[in-house]
Amino acid sequence: MDTKTKEQLENTLMLYIHIPFCLRKCRYCDFLSFSSCTEKAMDSYTQALVREIAYYGSRTNMPVSSVFLGGGTPSLLPAGDLETIMEAIKEHFDLQADAECTIEANPGTITFDKAQIMKRIGINRVSIGVQTFNDRLLKTLGRIHTEKQAEESLGLFQNAGFDNLSVDLMPGLPGQTVQDVTDSICKAVSLGVTHLSCYSLIVEEGTEFYRLFQKGQLPLPDEDTERTMYHEAVKTLRSLGFERYEISNFSKPGFQSRHNSGYWMRRPYLGLGLGASSLYDETRWHNTQNLAEYNKLAQADSVEISLKGIRRDVEKMTIKDQMEEFMFLGLRMDRGITYSDFKRLFKKDLYQVYGNAIEKHCQDGLLCKEEDRLHLTDRGVDLSNQVFVDFLID
Predict the structure, then answer these.
(1) Can you tell me whether residue 55 is helix, strand or coil?
(2) Rounded to the nearest 10 degrees, what angle do helices 178-190 and 223-239 cross at?
(3) How many angstroms separate the CA atoms of 256 and 246, rounded?
(4) At 354, phi and psi to the nearest 5?
């Protein structure tokens, strides 16, 4: 995390906007999304979302440093609905002039005209869910696009004037080789992307992949192969001029995701839309996952009462909770955490709280102390979960 990015996030708010519609549910996906996406359904959802945006925008005066439209497949929304959402954000929130505004897009859902409209309404960053540039593996995943369509989508955004393009790639797929992973990385970089997210496949309960896994019919790479995939990905990306700034995220200099960095730095954010999670005033909650219940916002006499009725799992975080999150989220970043930030936030010395855990993992070669900074070593990244668990306070 560079100093400029950190300063850009100080005393600002982030917005996450959830768009739950997809053309088809992928075989590995457990995200909150639906394959029914008629224009009527999307328009109704947009109306409810705009009322939530207006409500929260009138109750905070914090400048907004980033907006992230995630899903689902936000690029499926009609251009008119996208414009309505962005205009509502600009009207009701103090959106910084240089705010990072990202939309997730899937290949096969983009036209040049829609890409131009996205650019015109203020979206300036695109995160494209490619997962792999390999048609055989795309078919295994149940993706709706081909390698060629992924290339074409990147080209459409570039021709529309986007220069901040991220691609999601997924190691650890059934039948995937180490060479498959590095080939996809090289392909993405050759197509001009400035950011890559590489999150390994997790087989989630309730997905088609989970059912196949339970039957022994999902040929996943073994643990050693998956770690080799990760190490080769890191090595390849470094050779191509990409910096790792978080365990699974890489960028060219100056193209770190401001929004995702804010999550790891525990900046306040509002999650708006179906099932979206928030961290505001050290309180966490998420919205209902029932679409019909959420859509009632559009017609509610009292938005405030309606919103209170759809909040779930509201939790005021204790200082203990905050310190734990500060450590295991902050240590995900290559820069790690600083002793001075811990002292400033919690009025306690880091060693008074976590001295034993720090010494243990420094001796094991998993953590490294550098003046004011504490960060994972390369070996510590491999064993990060073992490190993080020791920063939970009994």
Answers:
(1) helix
(2) 30
(3) 9
(4) -125, 20
Q: What are the φ and ψ backbone dihedral angles of 305, each rounded to 5 degrees? A: -65, -40
Q: Is the pTM of this model over 0.90?
A: yes
Q: Residue 152 is which amino acid?
A: E
First CA to last CA distance, the chain? 30
| Residue the block writes with tokens 């070593």 | 377
The pLDDT confidence band at residue 38, using thresholds 50, 70 and 90, is confident
Residues in the chain: 394
Q: Which residue has the tokens 């668990």?
A: 389
- At residue 6, the pLDDT reads 62
SS3 state of residue 312: strand
How far, in Å, CA of 341 to CA of 350, rounded? 9
CA–CA gap between residue 295 and residue 303 (Å, rounded) = 11
Position 95, amino acid: L
Residue with tokens 């029932």: 290
pLDDT in the model for residue 222: 95
Question: Whole-angstrom Cα distance, residue 25 to residue 60?
Answer: 36
Cβ–Cβ < 8 Å for 18, 274: yes
Residue 25 to residues 72, 142, 237, 269, Cα–Cα distance (Å):
9, 8, 30, 27
Beta-sheet strand order (sheet of 373-376): 337-338, 373-376, 367-370
Distance between CA atoms of residues 294 and 29, nearest Å: 22
Q: What distance in Å separates the CA atoms of residue 114 and residue 240, rounded to the nearest whole number?
A: 31
